[in-house]
């Protein structure tokens, strides 16, 4: 019996390793792919891509897409919720309606880092899931004064199509209610 259990555990282990393999050994980690990319890079010109989509953040309600993971003793008394940290996995869509076509996800965190004015520290990855951008990502790190009409945040890097990306994102609130915020994003990314 013990032997059978051990075998079953081993089979399970091999099976789970097998499942994990494709992720670990994606072609992106193939040294040949890196060589090819480097060769092309010598002659590559920097390109500019413009992206437009809507970001849906739902911090409350039945199916929140953002969850509170930390707060300070003074957060609840602070007019800016100073010290609050949320982790989010928010859908990105083509149009402003929540039912509009999904083009990717924004995954990351925002922390309330302003005491006088709402000023979020945002660290997030925009992961795209359609067409030639599928699985490529853009990383944003910046300040989002969420109550201002326009907020600009820097792109600090990217992967896939967006390798070595730099640029900026302009966020503009499209609509806001007690459960969710829909934010329009205009992104300019320079990449190779
Ligand atoms: C995106 O890539 C994943 C694998 O990385 C694949 O399963 C999926 O079908 C692709 N989707 C599109 C729209 O190409
Ligand atoms: C808030 O807006 C979202 C997106 O438009 C909508 O789905 C939701 O029903 C609204 N909630 C309330 C309480 O109005």
UniProtKB/TrEMBL annotation:
Keyword Transit peptide: no
Gene Ontology biological-process entries: phenylpropanoid biosynthetic process
First and last residue of the signal peptide: 1-20
Main location: secreted
GO cellular component: apoplast
Subunit and partners: Homodimer.
Alphabetical list of PANTHER family matching this protein: NUCLEOPORIN-RELATED
One Pfam family, short name: Dirigent
Subcellular location: Secreted, Extracellular space, Apoplast
Keywords carried by this UniProt record: Apoplast, Secreted, Signal
Protein name (Swiss-Prot/TrEMBL): Dirigent protein
Function: Dirigent proteins impart stereoselectivity on the phenoxy radical-coupling reaction, yielding optically active lignans from two molecules of coniferyl alcohol in the biosynthesis of lignans, flavonolignans, and alkaloids and thus plays a central role in plant secondary metabolism.
Family membership: Belongs to the plant dirigent protein family.
């Amino acid at each position: 019996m013990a032997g059978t259990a051990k075998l079953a555990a081993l089979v399970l282990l091999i099976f789970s390793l097998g499942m994990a393999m494709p992720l670990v050994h994606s072609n992106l980690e193939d040294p040949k792919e890196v060589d090819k990319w480097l060769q092309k890079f010598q002659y590559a010109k920097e390109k500019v891509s413009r992206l437009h989509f809507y970001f849906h953040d739902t911090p409350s309600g039945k199916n929140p897409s953002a969850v509170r993971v930390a707060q300070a003793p003074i957060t609840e008394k602070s007019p800016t919720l100073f010290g609050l940290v949320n982790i989010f996995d928010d859908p990105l869509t083509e149009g402003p309606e929540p039912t509009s076509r999904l083009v990717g996800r924004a995954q990351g965190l925002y922390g309330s880092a302003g005491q006088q004015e709402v000023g979020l520290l945002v660290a997030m990855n925009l992961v795209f899931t359609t067409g030639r951008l599928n699985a490529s990502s853009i990383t944003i790190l910046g300040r989002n004064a969420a109550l201002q009409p326009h907020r600009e945040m820097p792109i600090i890097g990217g992967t896939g199509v967006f390798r070595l990306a730099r640029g900026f994102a302009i966020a503009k609130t499209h609509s806001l209610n007690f459960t969710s915020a829909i934010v329009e994003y205009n992104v300019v990314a320079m990449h190779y």
